[in-house]
Design a protein that fits this description.
alpha+beta
Length: 94
């Protein structure tokens, strides 16, 4: 389990969730993000990856334990204003 301030807050607020061994702690990450538009590439691909924080810290980012959940294509298709449109169906599925 991660020891970041965010996870400490979650554990402090919802301690009953952590005590149940069947519950899964997930982290959602984006790769390929260029929030300031500094990249001069004509094409952009954003990967949405899910990490399982129930593993030991050294196993969380190993490729066998990372789940690729969503691929968003196109430089203009994704901005910080509309990321929720792409993630909403995924979050509902979880």
């Amino acid at each position: 389990m991660s020891d970041s301030q965010s996870w400490k807050h979650i554990i402090g607020k919802w301690s009953y969730f952590v005590l149940e061994a069947k519950n899964i702690q997930l982290g959602l990450t984006l790769d390929g993000v260029d929030p300031f538009g500094d990249s001069s590439l004509c094409h952009s691909t954003w990967l949405v990856v899910l990490l399982n924080y129930n593993f030991s810290p050294w196993l969380v980012t190993k490729r066998y334990f990372m789940m690729l959940d969503l691929i968003i294509l196109g430089k203009e298709s994704m901005t910080s204003k509309n990321i929720d449109v792409y993630l909403e169906p995924f979050i509902e599925e979880l």
